[in-house]
Amino acid sequence: MSNQPKIILGIESSCDETACSICQKDDNRIRLLSNIVASSQSIHIKYGGVVPEQAAREQVKSIIPVITEALDQANLKPGEIDAIAVTQGPGLIGSLLVGVETAKTLSTIWDKPLIPINHLIGHFYANWIDKQSSDQPQFPFLGLLVSGGHSDLVLFEDHNHYDYLGGTRDDAAGECFDKCARILNLPYPGGPQISKLAASGDSTKFKLPRPMMHSYDLDFSFSGLKTAVLNLVDSTKISDKDLPNICAAIETAIIDSLVNKVVIAIKKYNIEQLVVAGGVAANSKLRTSLEREIGQVNPAIKLFVPPPILCTDNAAMIAAAGFFTEPVKNPLQVEANPSLSLSLSLSPTLNLWSVDTVT
Ligand code: KG4
Ligand code: ZN
Questions:
Q1: Protein residue with its CA nearest to atom 13 in ligand 1
Q2: What domains can you pick out in the chain, each with its CATH number?
Q3: Which of 206, 243, 238, 210 is nearest to 224 (CA)?
């Protein structure tokens, strides 16, 4: 990057969170100066999932107050920001538009460079925040992204250079948690609810499938598990005392499927670092299982998992990713892209953006 930014304001609005964060990079440490997240989750609870129109409307209401609060908490004025990073996609188009158009407007009126970020890549950069450079992930590493919309295994060679190894063929891991919770009449988002109940359950009381567990590719499948839970609930009279056991069986089945493919990938690519990201990474049992299983392959493998607050959607990860990504030449050409992915881009820096980057 020509003029390395020292202070980046990040904006995230891909789904039901409106977030703004300011990060400062000195030497090799990225410091979190502020991290504001407004969520419209409470509105979606009664529907058992995010209602896109409602989420977009809440984004419009929250975006300016959230940005103002992030600046206030960091004790900074717009003139002291060096660049703006914003989630370009993937996500809900209405929600994304609010963040992207706000970022373009601020970039223009404040005269600051604009850095569009793929939300999925952004998740990984939560692992760079508030750490000494020696404690940050080192390339190459295996990346496991587990969120509400995505479950992907990616081999990172460098910043913005990666090979896609595999991913879910149907539902994402977080989506599976959410859909199973809905079947069990538990509120959205389902992951934390199932995990909480699972803590007092016995995972062996109910047998649930682990689709694709024994295939040698690096893909996942979770829709069969969801269907099995639906059939179980339809065919069995579930009592209150069964609930923790079903939750434990669901959580264990999802974790087994993820950990099994991570272990295959680690052996296949001889990996020494595993970097986990996304909302499901907040699950403490996933972390413990990964630690135990990869430790058996090679006790020297380093595992990186962000603190729970930085696993779920936030703007700090978007600002952090901005320190390693080029700004665009013309901010007004940036467009929200709801269908950005990791799997389609062989050369992400060329394919993810529809605009030229500053050289
Ligand atoms: O990354 P994220 O905040 O949003 C997306 O980009 O999708 O992930 C949200 C997902 C939801 O499906 C939620 O149920 C799941 O992360 N999640 C969890 C936990 N906390 C959040 N899943 C399992 N255990 C948790 N503790
Ligand atoms: Zn996310």
A1: 191
A2: 7-129+310-357 (3.30.420.40), 137-305 (3.30.420.40)
A3: 210
Look at residues 294, 316, 273 and name the one whose alpha carbon lies nearest to residue 30. Answer: 316
For residue 347, is pLDDT > 70? no
Pocket of ligand 1 (CB under 6 A): 15, 147-149, 174, 177-178, 189-192, 195, 278-280, 282-283, 312-313
| Closest ligand relative to 276 C-alpha | 1
Q: pLDDT tens digits for 53-111? A: 999 999 999 999 999 999 999 999 999 999 999 999 999 999 999 999 999 999 999 99
- Distance, CA of 239 to CA of 329 (rounded, Å): 60
Q: Are 182 and 230 in contact (CB under 8 A)?
A: no
pTM of the model: 0.93
Cα(177) to centroid of ligand 1, in Å? 8
User: Tokens 């090799």, residue?
Assistant: 28
Count of residues for the chain? 359
Residue 84 Cα to ligand 1 midpoint, Å, equals 26
